[in-house]
Amino acid sequence: MSTQVACRRVYEETSPQDGKRVLVDRVWPRGMRKEDAHLDEWLRDVAPSTELRQWYGHEPSRFTEFRRRYRAELRDAGHREAAGHLRELASRNRLTLLTATKDVDHSQAAVLAEWLGEKH
After folding, report:
1. Is this model's pTM higher than 0.90 or not?
2. Which of 5, 12, 40, 42 could form a disulfide linkage to 23, CB 3.0–4.6 angstroms apart?
């Protein structure tokens, strides 16, 4: 498994070090035109469920519980195929997980990067 997984905001400039650029948000980033995103994929099915996303509300005090619940969702049938695809991408390429979230360290992208770095 490659450990070359980075997280960035989708609004940031692209970099040659990005490798594959995958948007991991369920909802398209506000104000971003598709042609300006420079994505390789939009993998919305790996994003947290709408219910979990709304409960979390990007409140850092809820991050530990969000992380626990989201990791449980990644094992569920609804996420399994997309999560497997993401794991396959990470095994072959440098991978940059993109999100519109302002606090990338407390986002699903950070949880995914951690998850991808573990042996399963």
Report:
1. yes
2. 42
